[in-house]
Amino acid sequence: MKFLLLSYSFTLCLLTFDFLGLGCAHEKVIINLDVKDEFRLAKENFDKKKYGKAAEGFKRLIFNHPGSGYVEEAEYWLAKSYFLKRDYLEAEQEYEFLLKSFPESRFADDAHFELALIYYKQSPPYRLDQSLTKKALNYFEDFLTKYPESVWVEEAKEYRTKCIDKLVKKEIAAAKFYMKLGHRKSALIHLKDILQKYPSNSYLDEVNRLLRICKEGS
Q1: How many domains does the chain have?
Q2: What gap in Å lies between CA 109 and CA 125, rounded to an integer?
Q3: What is the SS3 string spanning 153-193?
């Protein structure tokens, strides 16, 4: 009997909460925050690596407060939230929007560098199509020209070298393929193209060695 009374009381309590509109299972409570609190909450989620929730918060801020002074910064953290959760397509769009809408933003160099990283991270192994590697290289080189004082300069140089080396490896592989077939003239075209386009790379010794072999056999 005691158990029945407790069960009845608990059920009545649930019904009362549901009647008052407080039942969480039936109704989602939406709280409209001011722009400062909206930004703070989104940034807290970002700092806790809850990038999905952070992105939702920054998007909501941009939509609800388009004229506020927080939009520029929210746009950057929105892009970076997508970047860190590896949603590269969304991140690319948001970074490009930030750079186009706020070209003088204090986040411009960060956005440009991270956009270049997106292309690099999506580039496939060197034997496959290298369109994204070339795009990443262009962005890193453009970054180094535009932001010579950025904290990302040294890292950008390292990635530029990685891009160049990947492109050179593809050309070397093509040259070796033609050499194997006995088409030394075709191999020479690829090797000379390397020296013309990428005079500084990590495979110069290999390129010069192959050049000597091709010239000796021609």
Answers
A1: 1
A2: 27
A3: HHHHHHHHHHHHHHHHHHHHHHHHHHHHHCCHHHHHHHHHH
The answer to pTM > 0.85 is no
Q: For residue 206, count other CB atoms closer than 10 A to its CB.
A: 17
Residue 58 lies inside a defined structural domain of this protein:
yes
Place 216 in a pLDDT band, splitting at 50, 70 and 90. confident
Closest CA to 196 of 218, 216, 167: 167
Q: Contact at 8 Å (CB) between 174 and 158?
A: no
Give the integer Cα–Cα distance in Å for 138 and 140. Answer: 6
Q: 39 is in which domain, residue-wise?
A: 34-95
The answer as to whether 49 is a domain residue is: yes
Judged by average pLDDT, the poorest of 28-42, 108-122, 133-147 is 28-42
Residue (of 76, 11, 12, 67) closest to 35 by Cα position:
67
Alpha-carbon distance of 68 to 130, in angstroms, equals 41
Domain CATH code at residue 51: 1.25.40.10
Query: 139 lies in a domain?
Result: no
CB 189 within 8 A of CB 207: no
Residue-wise pLDDT tens digits, 8-39: 344 434 434 343 444 444 444 455 678 999 99
* 207 part of a folded domain: no
3 pLDDT band, cuts 50/70/90, is: very low
